[in-house]
Design goal:
The chain is an alpha+beta fold and 508 residues long. It folds into 3 domains: 109 residues, OB fold (Dihydrolipoamide Acetyltransferase, E2P) (Beta Barrel), CATH 2.40.50.140; 139 residues, Beta Barrel (OB fold (Dihydrolipoamide Acetyltransferase, E2P)); 120 residues, Nucleic acid-binding proteins (OB fold (Dihydrolipoamide Acetyltransferase, E2P), Beta Barrel), CATH 2.40.50.140. It is built from 10 helices and 30 strands. The strands form 6 sheets. Strands 8, 9, 10, 13, 14, 15, 16, 17 and 18 form a 9-stranded mixed beta sheet that branches. Strands 19, 20, 26, 27, 28, 29 and 30 form a 7-stranded mixed beta sheet that branches. β3 and β4 form a beta hairpin. The protein starts with 17 loop residues before the first helix and ends with a strand. One of its GO terms (biological process) is resolution of meiotic recombination intermediates. InterPro entries: MEIOB, NA-bd_OB-fold. One of its GO terms (molecular function) is single-stranded DNA binding.
Length: 508
């Protein structure tokens, strides 16, 4: 058969009728193999530049912040963020920075102001975050710039445009130990400028370098405030101080209220803007904050905020911070209504027969226990009875007490039966029978001491059974007789007990 010859008409599409032109073509379900010419790794590096690995082109010297010198030089340093705020710089230029994060980075030797410029990278920062910085230049801070008071050097980095600098967050490698020592702190010595929260709110905020050590009590939710501006206050030394928050007209500003406390008072700490992400990493009754130069404004209740000159050390490595955390943990636990006296912990006879008898004050005990909490102390106190509750507890049927099955049990009798397990219980004298005891340096409130049976008998002149069987007239006389007397008290302290133990009592 002869081969078929192709005609010229076969090279042209046949003419489609007008009725078929109005019909929609059938959808093609076959996937297209065409691409834009970029690999998946190139697209990921362009969309998420922070994930792109940085390779240094020269040698960077690891340096402490204290050893930095203004001028050119490739240095690498590590520290924790103690303050930061955001400044937006909107621009239509494609390669221009979209904003700047002004950070205050601190290590164990000093602080450095860092201007971190960004275009596409979203830096998720919070207070106390451990970061590493590589920079080719360090400059002297300008006198009019918004830098922290103790910071004299500043560096400006733009990692997305400049390959000679880089910024890294050390979240996975952070063990919670590095760069946590407060500036100027030495073991066994009081940190300069440190005061209680109560002293700060009652006038201590006027000091130039005031510091407070507080624990996080509770954390509120994020709130959006419209047409609000950062609170300001007038300071005689520094002029007008702006609190760190960026708000514009018809824009929303976020804030978070954090309730804080120490052993003297409580207050509210307000965080604005990007600082609102910090409390997400904090734990209530555990996280300790050392705040240097906080702002204070009174709105019926003391309220604190962060100014440009504020430092916030999260969980600092210092003795007072450990003590405050233990104090906060004890508050979360329900105390035993009448903690048993620890037998065999203190050698009472040896202490009584010792030729060396040391007389302490309440302030001395507080100082020694904070400095060396693991040590065991036995000594003497000279206290004055300011308050007694013998008659009040008798009327309430609460002269003696104990605890069983997690339920406090009170009675004006030495023995009683538990209503839960029907077990026969022996009650001890209620420690709240003695109210306030004072000396020339401080006082101890009701229920904060653990009395031995011998100490109760020496103080009241009768044991628990005789006290329970006493008449109302005798109890009134006993209360009036013991009020405002001077007591020579032999005490003992042990970290395992956690309270002062009264071993013996002598009425002066």
């Amino acid at each position: 058969m002869a081969p078929q010859i192709t005609s010229i008409q076969s090279f042209f599409q046949p003419e489609v009728p007008s009725a078929q032109k109005r019909q929609k073509p059938a959808a093609c379900h076959q996937p297209s193999d065409t691409g834009d010419g970029f690999t998946s790794s190139e697209i990921e590096a362009a969309l998420h530049p922070s994930l792109h690995k940085w390779q240094p082109r020269t040698l960077y010297n690891d340096t402490d912040i204290r050893d930095l010198v203004a001028g050119p030089g490739c240095v690498a340093l590590m520290g924790r963020i103690v303050n930061f705020h955001h400044i937006a710089t909107p621009s239509k230029m494609p390669k221009a920075a979209k904003g700047c994060l002004k950070l205050t980075v601190k290590d164990d030797t000093g602080t450095l102001a860092v201007k971190l410029w960004y275009a596409k990278v979203d830096y998720n920062l919070h207070l106390g975050l451990l970061v590493s910085i590589w920079t080719p230049h360090v400059s002297n801070a300008e006198s009019k710039s918004l830098t922290v008071q103790d910071t004299s050097l500043v560096t400006s980095i733009f990692p997305e445009r400049d390959n000679s600098c880089y910024f890294m967050v050390q979240e996975q490698s952070d063990e919670g130990i590095m760069c946590k020592t407060p500036l100027g702190y030495r073991d066994g010595k009081q940190l300069d400028g440190l005061m209680t929260l109560k002293s700060f709110t009652q006038g201590g905020h006027e000091l130039t370098d005031a510091k407070i050590l507080v624990c996080v009590k509770s954390i509120g939710g994020r709130k959006k405030c419209e047409n609000r501006h950062a609170p300001t206050r007038e300071d005689e030394r520094c002029g007008l101080i702006n609190f760190v928050v960026v708000t514009k007209k018809d824009k929303e500003a976020e804030k978070v209220d954090v309730n804080i406390f120490d052993d003297t008072a409580d207050a509210k700490l307000t965080l604005w803007g990007p600082l609102c992400s910090s409390p997400a990493c904090w734990k209530t009754s555990y996280t300790i904050l050392l705040i240097t130069r906080p702002g204070l404004y009174d709105d019926g209740r003391p309220q604190l905020s962060l100014t440009n000159n504020t430092h916030v050390d999260v969980d600092p490595c210092m003795t007072d911070a450990y003590w405050l955390r233990e104090h906060a943990q004890r508050l979360t636990k329900r105390e035993h209504v009448n903690q048993p006296f620890p037998e065999g912990v203190f050698d009472v006879e040896e202490a009584a027969e010792s030729e060396l008898r040391i007389v302490f004050t309440l302030a001395d005990i507080d100082q020694f226990v904070r400095a060396a909490p693991a040590e065991r102390y036995v000594g003497y106190l000279s206290l004055t009875v300011i308050e007694l509750n013998i008659y009040l507890l008798y009327q309430r049927n609460m002269l003696l007490c104990t605890e069983c099955c997690g339920v406090p049990i009170f009675a004006n009798a030495v023995t009683t039966k538990c209503k839960q397990c029907e077990k026969e219980l022996i009650l001890r004298i209620n420690p709240r029978l003695v109210g306030l005891l004072i000396d020339e340096t401080g006082g101890i409130t009701s229920g904060k001491l653990i009395w031995s049976d011998e100490a109760w008998e020496q103080f009241l002149g009768r044991n628990a059974e005789e006290l329970a069987n006493s008449s109302l007239t005798l109890l009134k006389y006993l209360e009036n007789r013991l009020l405002f007397l001077k007591l020579a008290v032999m005490f003992g302290w042990s970290e395992d007990v956690g309270k002062l133990c009264i071993l013996r009592v002598t009425i002066a």
